[in-house]
Amino acid sequence: MKYYLFLSFLFFRLLLSSTLDPIIDEYQNISSIYAPTVEDLLYLQSKLSTTYRPIVDRMLDTAFIPKKFKIIGTSQHEKPEAGWKAVNCSSAEHENCIVLYSSFNRNYPRGLKRLFHKIVNSTFRGHVYYRIGGWPNMEEGDLVLAGVPFAFKVSSIREMKRLGYKRVLWLDASILPYADLNMIFNLIKDRGYFVQSNSHDVGIYMNSDSCNYFNITMEEARHIWSCSAAIFGIDLTNPTTAPIIDAWYNAAKDPYAFFSARSDQNALSIIIHQMGLAHLMWPADTLGEPGHVKRQTLFLMDRRFVKNIED
Questions:
Q1: Which residues pair with 86 in a beta bridge?
Q2: CA-based angle 101:105:108, to the nearest 5?
Q3: How far apart are alpha carbons 171 and 168 in whole angstroms?
Q4: CA atoms in the 13 A half-sphere facing the CB of 54
Q5: Could you tell me the CA-to-CA distances from 130 to 223, 271, 281 in Å, in that order?
Q6: pTM for this one?
Q7: Which pLDDT tens digit goes with each residue over 233-290?
Q8: How far apart are CA 267 and CA 255, in angstroms?
Q9: Coil, strand or helix: which one is 166?
């Protein structure tokens, strides 16, 4: 059944591969989509790095991101790695989980490790998973999303869902928690999800093809408020909010939906809006920067640390 579902997914995406995204053809050339070898990842990386993909041009100022994205490093020491740790709880507990992912770009691996150690040494109660390189949830075929910008976020959450966790918090490698993480998980449990708003609408970063997937116009997109996808928590037991993940994943599988100038962020914002949950966003000023902490700050975003090495 799993293989059949993968073939069905691949068939529909192949319909557009010759003109929009030829990278889709390359998944047929690796030994296993579910358990790829290092050689498979190196092959896929070479294609991601060198293949001209017209769909990527729709991302405008962020088009460079998928063109340089590294699922495996360039040196023999940069092999994919993954791990997890139970923090202030037993290994059998599956209540709360934080999930982290980093590509091999810039200083993101160091940012991830800094964040991992901060969580491990905090009062947080739950499990924390990390993955550097490779791709999350390959056991369910999610590697086919490696060419979709920032789809590693929804794949990471899907992996934690498959492992049986009730509540999951995604954190970008640039993030530093400022508030008590247990309090954040209480918010996730109470409200069903946690996300912070941006200071702009979705429309300024959208295109008509991405809008068409969500059955909205460009004008309607200008009235949908954007959220920040750098931090996203979900209660997978909540029947109202848990469907966000399936909707986000289905959008990632579409040939157009994630290929806008703010890819996963735009998709998530529209999904939250269409589900009538946008009123539960936390204010934008609860996300700060190092040296700019306010009374209401919950997280810090340290972009300078993770971007101080050129690709």
A1: 127
A2: 50
A3: 10
A4: 6
A5: 36, 26, 26
A6: 0.93
A7: 999 999 999 999 999 999 999 999 999 999 999 999 999 999 999 999 999 999 999 9
A8: 13
A9: coil
Please give the Cα distance from 247 to 271 (Å, whole number). Answer: 7
Backbone angles phi, psi at 122, to 5 degrees: -105, -175
Which amino acid makes up residue 260?
A: S
What domains lie within the chain, and their CATH numbers?
Answer: 71-306 (3.90.550)
Strands (E), the chain: 81-87, 96-102, 126-132, 167-171, 175-177, 193-201, 225-235, 287-288, 299-301
Mean pLDDT, all residues of the chain = 93
d(CA 278, CA 41): 38
Residue 30 burial class via C-beta count within 10 angstroms: exposed 0-12, middle 13-18, buried 19 and up: middle
Q: Nearest Cα to 62, choosing from 258, 284, 195, 272?
A: 258
Residue corresponding to tokens 């073939």: 7
DSSP state of 252: H
Q: What is the pLDDT of residues 181-212, one digit of tens each?
A: 999 999 999 999 999 999 999 999 999 999 99
